[in-house]
Amino acid sequence: MTRFEIDFETRCSPERTIEALTDFTDRRTRIWPGLAPELYEVYSVGATSADVREGSTKPSRVWAKEHYDWSTPGTVRWTVRESNFCTPGSGVSVDVSPGTGGGSLVHLVWERHPSNAKGRMMIAFMKVLGPKIIRSYCTKSLDAYASTAA
């Protein structure tokens, strides 16, 4: 099991940050360019939850069917239901609060449990480089989203 917590600030307002995290339209792979369009599939979207498949092809083809929940104001959680690299119950939690200048402070908890050799390699990589990669990726993606029309 690998778990890490990171904090970062973005120019994106708290409302827009939650919006970016919970946008399950065809814009999602543009908001989050690390997601592979060919692996993205939406199963259901409700008022405060969604079931989707997301994944990446770099550095290795990994995917997870995940349940998103944003019923708690300021928090988005996604939990793995099925995956080709990690166990069900693994997941990510993001807490968003007001930052400086109208932006957001983001606290992210990443916790994944490998389910096979691919998962062990991927999660070992993330244990070492994940915090730096995710902080940079999320900040860049959310800052870009802040620049788009609401």
Give a written overview of the molecule:
- With 150 residues, this protein is α+β, with helices and mostly antiparallel strands.
- 28% of the residues lie in helices and 37% in strands.
- The protein has a seven-stranded antiparallel β-sheet, with helices on one face.
- The longest helix has 30 residues, at 117-146.
- The protein starts with a strand and ends with a helix.
- The mean pLDDT is 94.
Record keyword descriptors for this entry.
150 residues; alpha+beta; Alpha-D-Glucose-1,6-Bisphosphate, Chain A, domain 4; seven-stranded antiparallel β-sheet; 37% strand
The helix fraction, in percent, is: 25-40%
Order of helices and strands: EHHEEEEEEH
Taking all Cα atoms into account, the compactness measure Rg is 15 Å
Which regions are unreliable across 5 or more consecutive residues at pLDDT < 50? none
Number of domains: 1
Shape: globular
The first-level CATH class is given as: Alpha Beta
Task: Please give the CATH architecture.
Answer: 2-Layer Sandwich
Q: How many β-strand runs?
A: 7
Q: Find the CATH topology.
A: Alpha-D-Glucose-1,6-Bisphosphate, Chain A, domain 4
| The CATH H-level homologous superfamily | START domain
**What percentage of the residues does DSSP assign to strands (E)?**
35-45%
Distance between the termini: 38 Å
Widest sheet: strand order?
Answer: 1-7-6-5-4-3-2
Return the average pLDDT rounded to an integer. 94
Q: Which structural class is indicated by helix and strand composition?
A: alpha+beta
